[in-house]
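User: Hello, can you help with two protein structures?

Assistant: Certainly.
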Amino acid sequence: MTTSPVTVQLIGGPTALIEIGGMRILTDPTFSPPGPQPSGASTLTKLVGPARTADDVGVVDAVLLSHDQHADNLDEAGRAYLPSVPVVVTTQAAAERLGGTAVGLGPWTHTELSRPDGGVLRVVAVPAIHGPDGMEASSGPVIGFVLHGDGLPTTYVSGDNASLRVVEEVAHHLGPVEIAVLFGGGARVARLDAYLTLTSPQVARAAGILGTRAVVPVHSEGWAHFTQSQASLAAAFESEGLSDRLVLLAPGESRTL
């Protein structure tokens, strides 16, 4: 285990700013105001705008984009923001669609980003299942990320994943994980009777599986199809006896871990 700090700021929904190893990394940019957001053949409703605008966030070194096909992970303003980013690490399918600075990775492959101190930040793509098993063809490809670097705490960003089996695979292959940014919210849509992201009890169970010292939930507020809340997260972690690992942030709030 390392003692190097990582700072996480929740911007809103799945969007968080992670400062690690002297680098500023943004997850799934969603900067549009509230209102309906076209998402493929359907429409998702954004209830709350971001706590920080893209201008407020300022310069970042990279974006980790779990997927580009759903508006709650990349809305219109987030999409317009991407060309200003030096590198966007995402799925291979998204990289083909986005072009520009997008780098596409498949599960268990990686890219390396240069750190200001001369070291590297290794970004490993890991699997994510956006719903129950068998949903991949319908939901499209999604990935999560694990960040590694000399002297840095191993940090897992789950992306839109609903599978604890995937969490177990990440822990087995790339653990121990010290910090986890987990997408929760128990997302559901009318056309499917299933959760598309982790529920609050599953986020708490994931914390135990990973053995992490800090879990920062994101993707738990701001959209109408999120069915679970930060209050349910607090209750779930208390039930598992893991309240000391839970770091609940209000939109705009940051914490150094």
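That covers the first. Now for the second protein you mentioned:
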Amino acid sequence: MPEQLHARVEACYQLAEAFFKQRFARPEVSFKLRGQKAGVAHLTENKLRFNLQLYRENREDFLRQTVPHEVAHMVAHQLFGPRIQPHGEEWQLIMRGVYELAPQRCHNYEVQRRKVSRFIYRCSCPEGEFPFSAQRHAKVAKGQRYYCRRCKVTLQFTGQQRVE
């Protein structure tokens, strides 16, 4: 687990406590986040999830901007309750007042799209090629059937696979 990231979470909480003169419950910190999001605050679970890949690729900005962004969601929730807007005035107040940062809703990190396998299915139509995801292909293996909307024939796996 990245010690710098944990330390930054703690530093953000200490800044908020000094600013608001009250204690805040510390969240569980997880690195089980993938895809395009850099971080997510699960407010009712008191849990922060961070994208480890994006952290590694954008460490400096991640620590400067993303960590305070997510901690600000947690602090705003604890201060103002569950009915506030995620990036509303309360969250913006914390970003500007406590962390002295511009309240940016989204990161601009470059996100690598992962390669996915497609399993090729066909019907009796001349142009009838259907690329299935691994999940859908697994459902077929368990007995699920899919039909062509045009010719009404059950789609059959061709044995071909491609990576996109």
